[in-house]
Design brief:
Structural class: alpha+beta
Helix content: 25-40%
Number of helices: 17
Largest sheet: 7 strands, mixed
Number of strands: 23
Shape: globular
Length: 484
RNA sequence: GCGGGAGUAACUCAGUUGGUAGAGUCACAGCCUUCCAAGCUGUUGGUCGCGGGUUCGAGUCCCGUCUCCCGCUCCA
């Protein structure tokens, strides 16, 4: 299957079956924004719930839900005000766009030296001043006036650097002036760091312990693309684990294993997972790996595990004046904890699980004239615990009271699972409809049910059936679904 | 932001030199049907992405704009 094919098919199926719709579609859509439909929100909630249980049903991890709007100083402390701004320059001739600082780094040694010497002569500055002059994006026009465009090779064709800050800005209260500016959080992590002391006290936690949170974050990306992968509004599932700095290597490895296992346990194919080790680290990190999934468009990060050191707590101590420290009663040590961060994209995970589940199977078919052929079965092999609907209930035919029995079974199961009743069309068609929705089990009431109260349970992936007594269905399905 | 492709029914698409908007699938109702998209009948559903313009007349030609896909660029 061609790569673009499969993305298009999944986007189309996602819409048709109610997983994902484009935001504001009737108005022509809003770039890079998507809505979860009835099945999508169910599946997304299942993913989040599984993560939440996995992370917080432990002795040493607490959950919180911090506010999206935070004090503006938070983002100064975190480095987002300074580092989340990218100065960009365009080549006027070939229209290629570059980040100013990366463009400078990419210059050959010879070219860099020449540029420096020329500027030094012209502006009559010493070495230190020249360096800061060059680094200041405001001087980009002057600095780049003799530089060749890496794309088209032309000389001195760059525009002035323009700043792109990736944080969404808004105002608190009715007056729109600079003293009222707040940002939509570009990551959920800071809401955890600033609550470190609160949670430690309230939860009576000792190191090592973690704080988990699921929530939306916003980045005003220059470009959105690849369906749910790069969007301006997205949801994160983050856990920040606070430790003694001397144990950082051990905990980093521990959480890396834990998080990879979670994806594998829920059906992500191992050959579609890759661990990408960062060689170039962000300003806050000592070690970083990405868990990547092989999407149809290529490898993409679905979770990052970072050793953020004491960077964030130290910075918040500095900016707020509150000591975000830990005192160990046993060893009488006082220190700023290190943080091992596990940061998963909920939306990206959803997309990975959806794509991972998609399959077009060739199945044997007997035609009405008795000849054999094959046909395509489109099926979502979603892990049962993530499947939006756990079971569908059908009367085999609409007579002899089978509908009533099927309705009663549906109502019984509904006390425990999300179930769906369907009596429209041939039973084979109903099975296939549920396959496309990823429903793992289909229960059919047939003539045998009328005599001995047993029904068939058909499993989605194998298409095999077993007979189960209708009063045992809840127990039977529970075992299959909750065994994660 | 640049280059290329696309946008017509819920989905996939057709629509001739400009002349009353189509098919298949899906959905719904009924018939038939005792286990994997069978068949028959009927029905719903579209100001052709949106906004202008040219024209007696625009899905079709022109301009603008939005969105999606691919490739660059970008992704602390």
């Amino acid at each position: 299957m061609a790569k673009t094919d499969i993305t298009e098919k999944i986007v189309s199926l996602a819409k048709r079956r109610g997983f994902v719709f484009q935001s504001s579609e009737i108005y022509g859509g809003l770039n890079g924004c998507w809505d979860y439909g009835p099945l999508g929100v169910e599946m997304l909630n299942n993913i989040k719930q599984s993560w939440w249980k996995e992370m917080t049903y432990r002795e040493n991890v607490e959950g919180i839900d911090a506010s999206i709007l935070m004090h503006p100083r938070v983002w100064e402390a975190s480095g987002h005000v300074d580092n989340f701004t990218d100065p960009m320059v365009d080549c006027k001739e070939c229209k290629a766009r570059f980040r100013y600082d990366i463009l400078l780094e990419g210059l050959s040694e010879k070219a860099a030296k020449k540029m420096k010497e020329d500027l030094k002569k012209e502006l009559n500055l010493d070495d230190d001043k020249i360096k800061s002059f060059i680094e200041d994006p405001d001087n980009s026009e002057k600095v780049l006036s003799t530089v060749n465009c890496p794309n088209c090779g032309r000389n001195g064709t760059f525009t002035k650097a323009r700043s792109f800050n990736l944080m969404f800005k808004t105002y608190i209260g009715p007056v729109e002036d600079s003293s009222n500016i707040v940002f939509l959080r570009p990551e959920t992590a800071q809401g955890i760091y600033v609550n470190f002391l609160n949670v430690k006290e309230a939860g009576r936690q000792k190191l090592p312990f973690g704080i988990a949170q699921i929530g939306k974050a916003f980045r005003n990306e220059i470009n959105t693309k690849n369906f749910l992968f790069r969007t301006r509004e997205f949801e994160q599932m983050e856990m920040q684990f606070f430790i003694n700095p001397k144990d950082d290597g051990q905990w980093f490895e521990y959480w890396k294993e834990q998080r990879i296992n979670w994806f594998v346990k829920h059906g992500i194919k191992k050959e579609k997972l890759n661990i990408h080790v960062h060689d170039k680290l962000a300003h806050y990190a000592k070690a970083a790996v990405d868990i990547e999934y092989e999407f149809p468009f290529g490898w993409g990060e679905i979770e990052g595990i970072h050793n953020r050191t004491d960077f964030d707590l130290k910075r918040h101590t500095e900016y707020s004046g509150k000591k975000l420290e830990y005192f160990d009663d046993q060893t009488k040590e006082r220190f700023i904890p290190y943080v091992i961060e596990t940061s998963a994209g909920a939306s990206r995970s959803f997309m990975a699980f959806l794509i991972n589940a998609y399959d077009e199977e060739q199945v044997a078919k007997e035609n009405s004239d008795g000849s054999k052929s094959t046909e395509v079965r489109t099926v979502l092999h979603i892990h049962p615990s993530f499947a939006p609907v756990k079971a569908a209930v059908f009367p085999l035919v609409n007579r002899d009271g089978m509908q009533d029995i099927a309705h009663n079974i549906t109502e019984d199961l509904r006390n425990h699972f999300r179930v769906f009743y369907d009596d429209s069309g041939a039973v084979g068609r109903r099975y296939r409809r549920q396959d496309e929705c990823g429903t793992p089990y289909c229960i059919t009431v047939d003539s045998e049910t009328l005599t001995n109260d047993s029904v068939t349970v058909r499993e989605r992936d194998s298409m095999e059936q077993v007979r189960v007594h209708k009063d045992k269905l809840t127990e039977y399905l529970s075992q299959l679904i909750i065994r994660n």
